[in-house]
Every structure is written in structure tokens, then in C-alpha cells.
Amino acid sequence: MEAVAEETGYVPNFSEFEANRAGEPAWLADLRHAAITRFTQLGFPTAKAEDWRSTGVGPIIATPWALARTGQGQPALEAARPPAGVRVARLRDVLAKEPEILRDRLGKIAGFASNAFAALNTAFFEDGLLVEIASGAMVETPLEILFESVGSTEPAVSHPRCLIVAGARSQAAVVERYTGDGSYFQNAVTEILLEEGAVLSHYKLQQEDTAAFHVQTIAVRQDRASHFASHNIALGAALARTDIRVELDGEGGECELYGLYLGAGKQHLDNHTTIDHAMPHCVSRELYKGILDGKARGVFHGKIIVRPGAQKTDAMQTNKNLLLSKEALVNSTPALEILADDVKCKHGSTIGQLDANALFYLRSRGIGEEEARRLLTYAFAADVAERIRVPSVRAAVEGVLGLRLGGSVKEVLP
Amino acid sequence: MKNALLEIRDLHASVAGKEILRGVDLTVNPGEVHAIMGPNGSGKSTLAHVLAGRPGYEVTKGAVLYRGRDLLAMKPEERAREGVFLAFQYPVEIPGVSNVYFLKNALNAIRKHRGLPELDAIDLLQLTKEKARLVQIDEELVKRPVNEGFSGGEKKRNEIFQMAVLEPVLAILDETDSGLDIDALRIVASGVNALRSPERSMIVVTHYQRLLNYIVPDFLHVLVEGQIVRSGGKELALELEEKGYAWLEKEPAAVPALPV
User: Fold this and answer.
1) pLDDT 10s per residue in chain A (414 long)?
2) Cβ B91 vs Cβ B155: under 8 Å
3) Which of A249, A282, A341, A405 is the most buried (most CB within 10 A)?
């Protein structure tokens, strides 16, 4: 395994990288060391790894990536002057001026013991954002963070790192938007902590170039009575993999995970989610929908863990997939590990084509076949799309649905 | 003789390789209301779907002329744009698409085809208000997703509502009465009657004579085993109610109905 890492140059790269960051505090140098060591032990995942059975990362391994300057994350214009109660700081500034505030937070939620990409990110991250929402702050404007990978002449990799801390009883929405130009590799990690009673909506809008590779780990920890909603929208990239792991770590916590993946051409879109019910009286709701056209492939893997003692857990998971072509493919795997006895857990998964009866019904009213298909396809995505409350994200999704499906879709929704 | 709106000649049709229609002949003139009755499995619904162009219904023989043109050569949407409307026995639920959007799309596709200007949202609102009153459908239902969570009666009323908005030339009602209680039946029938006009023809497919007390047809045809075995006026319905279908089933198939 070590050979793999060495061949691809990550270890020599790390020595050089490390030498250039000699001023970093010892705890951070130790963390990076532990991460690169773990990465060399793990190597890149192969098809033998349970979590990677459906997604091959050959092209990522084969490319000698240089460290990129862009794609590191910056506040979008609207977030440049954050509203009261919110602090948005570039991670590189925090690392330079006050690294100690990260000491007890960084790497605490997103572990890398079994996640090679998170290990790589931890070893190499240079920038990203720290978002702190003060206790009790009610933030009405969504904070947008833009990760834009542009302008590199050689294949480049970014390892942006974000840490979002939602203070007790605060309310806010954060949008991470990924775009770029060309063939690059985005390897992001976001750690999110919700303190007691915090309410946080997190949007990920993945609109990478269709020649790009995108991997992100989103690791979330929820304290007592907090509410986390995730909207994970995958539209771009040649290969994209998102891991979302939510630990319900205090009683009365609730999480909602929504996902929409729209693949065409030869895109490969993989979403792995884990909801860990570690404490009693927590609720989780999960709805992921995929629409796959051309030779696209979708992967959904949804794990729900109910720990011993996590009684009165209420978990519901649904994954629905619509295949628009004969060559499109999807792998849908629910995985339940229930170790408590007084719980409610439901899951369901479907893969299908457009409903022939509905298609005929629309056509029998004069709506052309193409338009009828568009309408039904959009309608399939509607229950995830209509939950998107941030106008810019909603517009992007509708735009892509409209563009991909043709015509205007704005008025379709009830 | 006036030009027939619809001429069905020796129509044979199969579903999944099984022959259901075995030589149906029927002529419908403008403004006429024809009822088609028959026992379960006689091919009533198949006839309705063949006329609307449902994929999977294969015409193996015969012809259907609509305003002198080959109806069977048209796609379902073309038929609709030319004025054919099928009220479904089992209206389809379409979550995620609002009734209003659906109707606007349908109506404008039809209007465009006829060279009329498209309606905007305000015109449509006006129109749907007026038509909703006509068929006594709750305006709130009009805003909801198409048929989703509607009761059986609401679905049937929504079909007639759509018919009122789209103003077809030939309306085919496929067992619109099935599953309706008497109040719902009256509402649906009065909606249909309000849409009767000298320019609009209807084919009312039903299993029960009951509906014909409310929608009184000009002609009634009895379909048995894929053929029309008897044609007559509305009084035939009473005879059927009295005797059932059995006496017709025993008669040799090809005797009546055909114009000589």
C-alpha cells in the first residue's frame, strides 16, 4: 500500500510541504504527520473496500497532481461582510495569526482512521474557512462560500478545509458552492459542530467542471436538541464522491439529509451517508433522489447506525432513482445497524423509468412527448428541489434541470 | 347526409397479443352523444384507449376516420390537439406537477396547434375559475398537484374540469361513473350536460345504465366480445336494465349494427 502512495508522489510531496510550514505549532505538525502516515497505510481505496465497491478512483491515482492555488474557498460577495453574530475567517489567516483557537476543534469530527481522502486533506490543507455563528445569533442571510478551481495549467489538487461552528441556539444557513474550469481534483473536508439547540441548514452545490474530480467529506456532530438539515446537490464533475457523516451526539437531536444527483454523459456521482444515532430520542429523515441519463452512473449508500441505548430513535431513509436511458446505471444500498430495541427505522429504495401511464395521460391532453418527459422528470426531483430555501441554490438547480431537460421549469411546482 | 365526425370501420385491436376488439363499426356525427355499454371485458375501455392512442394497444385491422383523416396515424398529443379528449377511468396522479401548470401547458399546446394566441397566467386563472364553477370543483384542488391525494369523486370531477377547459370536439368518457356515489354522479353528469353542444360529440362508455338517466344519449350501442351486437335509442338502456346482457350474448354476433 505504501508503494501506491510513494509512486504517486504524495509522501515526497509531503516532506517538501512540511519543510515549508516549519512555523506551524507542534500539535498541527503532529496531526499532519499522523494523517500522512495513515494515508500511506490505507493507500487509495480499491474496489475491494466495502465503501468503494461501486466507485473506482483510478484516474485520481494515476494523475500527478500539483497543489493548487485556487479552489481553496472564499466567501462569496454577499458573505464578504458577514452579518452580526457571524465570523467568517480565511483558515490560512487563522493558521498564521491565531492557530491555537483551532487546536481543540480541527480534526475532531472528521477522523481519518478509515478515510484516505480525509487523511490526505488533513496532511495537506492550507486554507479554507472558519465560520463561527455566535450563541443565540439568528442569521437570516445565507452565508455563501465559493470554491472555484480555475487558471491552473497543470493538473492541480486543492485540499480546502472548513470548520463551521453553530453556537448554542443559533440559526443560520451556509452554502458551499464548488465550481471550476478544466481537469482538476478537489478534495475537501468540512467539519460542522452544532452546539446545544443550534439550527443549521447546510447546502452543498457541486457544479464542478465535467472534466474534474471531486471528493468531499462532510462530518457533522450534533449536541442536544440541535437541528441539522443538509441539502447535497450534485450536478457536475466527471467523478464526484461525497461522504456525509452525522453523529447525533445529544438527546433530542434531529437531522434531515436531502440529496439530488443529476448525472448525464459519463458522469459518476457517488453519495455515501452515515447517520449515527448515538443518543436516545433523536430523529433522522433522509431523502436522496437521482436522475441519470446517458451512460451516467449514480451510487447511493445510506447507513443508519443505532447505538446500544439509543432508544426511541426514529429514522427514515428513502432513495429513489430515475433512469432516463438504457445505459444509465445506479447502485442503491441501504445499510442498517440497529443495536437498540425500542426504535422506529424505515428505509426504502426504488429504481425505475418514467411512468408510462403518466406519460400517456399528459400526451392525451395535448402535451408533446418531449415536454411530457421533461415535466415528469422535473416532477420527480420536485420534493427535494422545493425544500431548497436559498434562492441562488434553487435557481441553480432549476437552471440545470431546465437546461438539461430543456424549457422553463419555474412554474411547474405546485 | 352531413359529414361524420368519427367513422370506425371494422376495427380490430389487440393488447399484449390478445385480440380484444373484433370488428367494431360506429359512426358519430357532430353533436351526437353515443353511449357504449357492455359487460366486463367486452372491450369498452379498449375502444376508448385505442381512440386516444394509448401505446401498447395494437390495431390489427380496420380504420378510424376523424374529420375525414386517419386518426390512427396520429400521435396521442396530435389527437388531443385536433380535439379528441379521453376522460380516464383511472386518472393518473402526478406528484410534483400542479394542476394549473399542467392545464396551461395542455391548453396552450392545443391553442398553438389551432393558430390561437397562448393564454397567460391571468387569462388562465380567469378561465379555470369559470370552469371550476361549472363542474363544481373546489378551486383549491386546481392548485394542487395533478390528482395527488384526490378522492375517487374528485379525480372524476377533475377529468370533467379538464374537459371543460380544453373544450374538445370529441369527448370519450371511459366509465366516468364508476365508483361515484349518487351526488358525485349528479355533479359529474350536470358538468357533462353543460358541455353538450351541436359542435361537440361524445362517446360515453359505461357499465351501468344508471349514468344514462343523467346523461341521456342519442344512441346506445351494446358491445359484447369485441363487437357491437345491438344499436338503438335510449330505450335500449331500459331493456338492458331489465334483461341484463345475457340475452344479447346468445345472439349471433354479426347481425345488427352494421349500416347496410
Assistant:
1) 444 544 566 777 898 899 988 889 999 999 999 999 999 999 999 888 888 999 999 889 888 888 888 888 887 755 567 788 999 999 999 999 999 999 999 999 999 999 999 999 999 999 999 999 999 999 999 999 999 999 888 889 999 999 999 999 999 999 999 999 999 999 999 999 999 999 999 999 999 999 999 999 999 999 999 999 999 999 999 999 999 999 999 999 999 999 999 999 999 999 999 999 999 999 999 999 999 999 999 999 999 999 999 999 999 999 999 999 999 999 999 999 999 999 999 999 999 999 999 999 999 999 999 889 988 988 899 889 989 999 999 998 888 777 655 444 445 544
2) yes
3) A282
Calpha distance B11→B59 (Å, rounded): 7
Ramachandran bin of B55, using left for φ above 0, alpha for ψ from -120 to 50, beta for the remaining angles: beta
**How many angstroms separate the Cα of A251 from the Cα of each of A150, A245, A344, B23, B191?**
44, 18, 16, 71, 56
Gap from B95 CA to chain A (nearest CA, Å)? 7
**The CA-based dihedral angle spanning residues B156, B159, B164, B169, taken in that order and rounded to the nearest 10 degrees:** -120
* Mutation site for B-interface testing, chosen from A364, A375, A383, A384 by largest number of B Cβ within 10 Å: A364
Interface pTM, i.e. ipTM: 0.93
When scoring A260, A355, A360 by the number of chain B Cβ atoms within 10 A, the one with the most, hence best to mutate, is A360
The reported pTM is 0.86
